């Protein structure tokens, strides 16, 4: 590892910590400021924050690795995600921004659900908070695995002699240093720090995702020689349909269903400065996502051609971005590119830590222990909860054989099935009942966990596996509709919500 690369990474870490200090001075005096930035995010910050917190290390590690190993057919995951993200901005964003503000200024998703269905308020808050904490521990661990892989691949034994409590290896050190920097700015700066760092990190990510495939392609002499190299490996490598089965297509494209239930993404909708600015944020966010997704696909494709033509050994396909950064660029640029990878990882981890912390703080501590706690006390408790979740996630991430995409897919499905149908219907269907909400939440999460435990996501009835979000999402949807229609219609609210923002 060249000294220039290390300098670039140090500058990046210092910038993120500086933003945390700025946010600490700006907006951490009360819970709304610490957890939602006072609902004052400009559209561009909200859009890139939502995108960066969504596009974690899997965008630069997991997805390119899948393309590298299996070819262009893996692009269906990206296509499904793009469609799902667009639908999320259309169906959820404006309604959630409006209704959370009207329902007594709800600060968390569990709090919103409890006020939307007051007869089951405590049950909904407790179950949804438990699901958030459990799945986010796994999801955050996936991000820390990415940080560990970066240090393990790039630093070549530099930290291998560290004491065991500091990781004992390059991988372990990478896990802890990634967690430590994220903790520093998240604990002190809260939601504003997370959102501002996400904005900066989103800008860094998109530059890297555009730069890397262009340079790798030109290094192969252009698109023609690159395509020839790939088809010589496998004539169908660049086919988007070869070998694609119906179940494989559904398992890939239905990743998009997960967007409706990702608390760390949809909480950004709650924080946008005003309802009319949601459309502006959507346009910025979807443009950013389209460019980033194409760059990610390009890294996997161009990287495979470069590695094959140059005879470079490649043990872990998920490290292709790191390998190309080391081989193709000046050390200072390499440091910038590795900072982009850290940006992808850290932007998601910080968002997940804050959402998990908000659930522990608002939906457990305030609800059961200190109902009259002061705002300053709640902010302090929130910081402690951020630390606790980060430590648990770091311990889960200590296995260097973990796969980023696999961990993300499990957590993504858990949130998508548990919260996706619940959020969609609670925002759009007045006939939905509290009992239906509880049943959907429980059944969606339970089906996903059971599906994974039985291994049916790998092999179903002796054949191809089915992605767990499919049975989980639709089981939850059926449960909500069935239980709601079987019960008594809910009483009209004393203070009805205003007109649907898409109908005005």
From TrEMBL:
Membrane disposition: Multi-pass membrane protein
Main location as per UniProt: membrane
Family label: Belongs to the sodium:solute symporter (SSF) (TC 2.A.21) family.
Catalytic reaction(s) noted: L-proline(in) + Na(+)(in) = L-proline(out) + Na(+)(out)
Name recorded for this polypeptide: Sodium/proline symporter
Spans traversing the lipid bilayer: 6-25, 75-93, 122-151, 171-192, 199-219, 239-260, 281-307, 327-357, 378-398, 404-427, 434-454, 466-487
PANTHER family, per the entry: SODIUM/PROLINE SYMPORTER-RELATED, SODIUM_PROLINE SYMPORTER
Gene Ontology cellular component annotations, sorted alphabetically: plasma membrane
Keyword field: Amino-acid transport, Cell inner membrane, Cell membrane, Ion transport, Membrane, Sodium, Sodium transport, Symport, Transmembrane, Transmembrane helix, Transport
Organism whose genome encodes this protein: Stakelama pacifica
Keyword Transmembrane helix belongs to the record: yes
Protein biosynthesis keyword on record: no
Pfam family, one: SSF
Annotated GO MF terms: L-proline transmembrane transporter activity; proline:sodium symporter activity; sodium ion binding
Protein purpose: Catalyzes the sodium-dependent uptake of extracellular L-proline.
Xref: InterPro entries: Na/Glc_symporter_sf (IPR038377), Na/Pro_symporter (IPR011851), Na/solute_symporter (IPR001734), Na/solute_symporter_CS (IPR018212), Sodium:Solute_Symporter (IPR050277)
Gene Ontology BP annotations: proline transport
Subcellular location as annotated: Cell inner membrane; Cell membrane
């Amino acid at each position: 590892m060249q000294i220039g690369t290390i300098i670039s990474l140090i500058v990046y870490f210092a910038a993120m910590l500086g933003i945390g200090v700025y946010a600490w001075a700006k907006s951490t005096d009360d819970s709304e400021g610490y957890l939602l930035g006072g609902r004052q995010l400009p559209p561009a910050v909200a859009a890139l924050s939502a995108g960066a917190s969504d596009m974690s290390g899997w965008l630069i590690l997991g997805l390119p690795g899948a393309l590298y190993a299996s070819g262009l057919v893996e692009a269906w995951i990206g296509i499904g995600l793009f469609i799902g993200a667009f639908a999320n901005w259309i169906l959820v964003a404006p309604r959630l921004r409006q209704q959370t503000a009207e329902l007594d200024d709800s600060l968390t998703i569990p709090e919103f659900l409890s006020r939307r269905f007051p007869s089951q308020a405590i049950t909904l808050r407790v179950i949804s908070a438990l699901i958030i904490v459990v799945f986010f521990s796994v999801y955050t661990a996936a991000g820390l695995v990415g940080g560990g892989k970066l240090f393990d691949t790039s630093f070549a034994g530099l930290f291998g002699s560290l004491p065991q409590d500091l990781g004992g290896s390059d991988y372990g050190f990478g896990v802890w240093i990634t967690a430590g920097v994220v903790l520093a700015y998240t604990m002190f700066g809260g939601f504003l720090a997370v959102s501002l760092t996400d904005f900066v990190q989103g800008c860094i990510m998109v530059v890297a995702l555009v730069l890397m495939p262009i340079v790798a392609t030109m290094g192969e002499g252009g698109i023609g020689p690159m395509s020839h190299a790939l088809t010589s490996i496998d004539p169908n490598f660049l086919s988007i349909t070869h070998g694609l089965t119906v179940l494989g297509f559904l398992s890939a494209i239905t990743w998009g269903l997960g967007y409706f239930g990702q608390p760390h993404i949809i909480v950004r909708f709650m924080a946008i400065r005003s309802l009319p600015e949601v459309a502006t944020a959507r346009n910025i966010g979807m443009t950013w996502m389209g460019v980033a997704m194409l760059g990610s696909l390009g890294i996997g494709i161009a990287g495979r051609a470069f590695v094959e033509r140059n005879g470079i050994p490649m043990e872990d396909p998920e490290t292709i971005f790191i390998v190309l950064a080391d081989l193709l660029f000046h050390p200072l640029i390499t440091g910038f590119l590795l900072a982009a990878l850290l940006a992808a990882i850290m932007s998601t981890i910080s968002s997940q830590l804050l959402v998990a912390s908000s659930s522990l703080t608002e939906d457990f501590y305030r609800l059961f222990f200190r109902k009259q706690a002061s705002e300053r006390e709640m902010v302090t408790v929130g910081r402690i909860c951020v630390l606790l979740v980060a430590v648990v996630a770091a311990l889960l991430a200590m296995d260097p054989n973990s796969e980023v995409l696999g961990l993300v897919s499990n957590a993504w499905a858990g949130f998508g099935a548990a919260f996706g149908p619940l959020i969609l219907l609670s925002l759009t269907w007045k006939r939905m009942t509290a009992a239906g909400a509880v049943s959907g939440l429980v059944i969606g999460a339970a089906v996903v966990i059971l599906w994974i435990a039985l291994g049916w996501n790998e092999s179903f009835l002796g054949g191809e596996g089915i992605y767990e979000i499919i049975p989980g999402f639709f089981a939850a949807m059926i449960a909500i509709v069935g239980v709601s229609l079987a019960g008594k219609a809910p009483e009209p609210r004393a203070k009805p919500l205003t007109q649907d923002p898409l109908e005005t």
